[in-house]
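Final report, section 2: Outcomes. Of the targets proposed, RacX protein is the one most frequently requested by collaborating groups, and we therefore present its record in full.
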Amino acid sequence: MKTLGILGGMSPESTVSYYLAINRAVNQHLGGNASAKLMISSVDFAEIVQCQKSGDWQKAGEILAEHAKSLEQTGVDGILLATNTMHKVAKQIIDSISVPFLHILDCVANRIKQQNLTKVALLGTAFTMSDNFYRDGLAERGITAIVPEIETQQEIHRIIFEELCVGKILPQSKAFYLKTIENLTALGAEGVILGCTEIGLLINQEDSALPFFDTAQLHSEMAVDFILDR
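The predicted structure is given below as tokens.
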């Protein structure tokens, strides 16, 4: 079994979901009392959020790169960044380490292509939806992402930070997300990327006829494959 380092805390809510999903899958595969060998470096999310708000992505990347280097020094075999938005600084992290980096866009794009889809709705933070890093990364992998209008993006973003990141699950917010998905379906979306690791706390596959691509779940599955070397 390999040891995986997790850059977490962005938010703690999503990091918990990664931890549980990875350990449950490893136990299901190996049986008994088996669990995953994990090292978690959990950042102060407030510090990262401040970098996001001020547009200081260089500093955010430096913070995460330092945490990644610390994880590598503990002897981990690979590193996973347990968040979508901060993959904007993935290159800084990758350049700071010598062990493999498990990129979230690889597992998401692979699963979408397995279902023979090419055009999907993308929900996430405002940074993920409006910045080019995520959509361009998908395009490089053969996937076209469509996003809501700016006002809708802002409300999706607000719900993530003010509610989901602090454990609030409200029915009116769920209804807003599902209405947004309906609107994007009318624009040709064939599936939906839950492009923020907290969104799966609010909506799930049972809520829509379109296939959902829960990035936290897919990333966790990628982590399990790495840990079990399969």
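The longest helix spans residues 12-30.
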